[in-house]
Amino acid sequence: MSVIFDTDLGEIKIEIFCEAVPKTAENFLALCASGYYDNCIFHSINLKFLNYILINEIIRNIKGFMIQTGDPTGTGKGGTSIWGKPFEDEIKPTLKHNRRGIVSMANNGPNTNKSQFFITYSKQSHLDTKYTVFGKVIDGMETLDALEKVSVDEKYRPIQEVKIKSVTILANPIADKE
């Protein structure tokens, strides 16, 4: 199962782990199919989020860390799940933030998943057991490279607005079951 994000900087193809994390996959694929992510910008990581995930480690540069998207308001504070409320984590010991291109749900603490997600720029093992890993980049690493090189302001917001223009679902086993 995979999807392709067509961004302003190129395409990123993501494999979705439907069997390992079925609820997260259902939410993500339904949002993709509905056009929810179309025109979402890649936005900053707020400091509360950084402090939660890093347990007060100081990060001065998001390069080498991650990029986040999935909030149609563009503020980094919005978004909802297909159920209209947060849903529980699906943390799996076999799914880790062990390389560049891991795709995980963003949250504000345990069991607060909605629509926002992030893609890692490198191994981030301190995120394991805190965020549901639900996919990995399988093509488009050059686009991920280009995203990482976008200049940011002092609040880690990209200076150049970069959007997901559209999402193509290549196969959707969740929808095929219905």
Walk me through the topology:
Blueprint: E1 2-7, E2 10-16, H1 22-34, H2 47-54, E3 66-69, E4 102-105, E5 117-120, E6 133-139, H3 141-149, E7 164-169, H4 173-177
How does this structure look, described?
The protein is an alpha+beta fold. The chain is built from 4 helices and 7 strands. The protein has helices at residues 22-34, 47-54, 141-149, 173-177; strands at 2-7, 10-16, 66-69, 102-105, 117-120, 133-139, 164-169. A 7-stranded antiparallel β-sheet has the order 3-5-4-6-2-1-7. It is globular, with a radius of gyration of 15 Å. The two termini are 16 Å apart.
Strand order of the largest sheet: 3-5-4-6-2-1-7
**Average predicted local confidence, pLDDT:** 86
DSSP strand content = 15-25%
The residue fraction in helices comes out at: 10-25%
What Rg, in angstroms, do the CA atoms define?
Answer: 15 Å
Category from helices, strands and their pairing: alpha+beta
Strand/helix succession:
EEHHEEEEHEH
Helical stretch count? Answer: 4
Low-confidence stretches: 51-61
Distance between the termini: 16 Å
- What gross morphology would you assign? globular
Tell me the total number of β-strands.
7
What composes the largest sheet?
Answer: 7 strands, antiparallel
Brief description of this entry?
With 178 residues, the protein is of the alpha+beta class. The chain has helices spanning 22-34, 47-54, 141-149, 173-177; strands at residues 2-7, 10-16, 66-69, 102-105, 117-120, 133-139, 164-169. It has a seven-stranded antiparallel sheet.
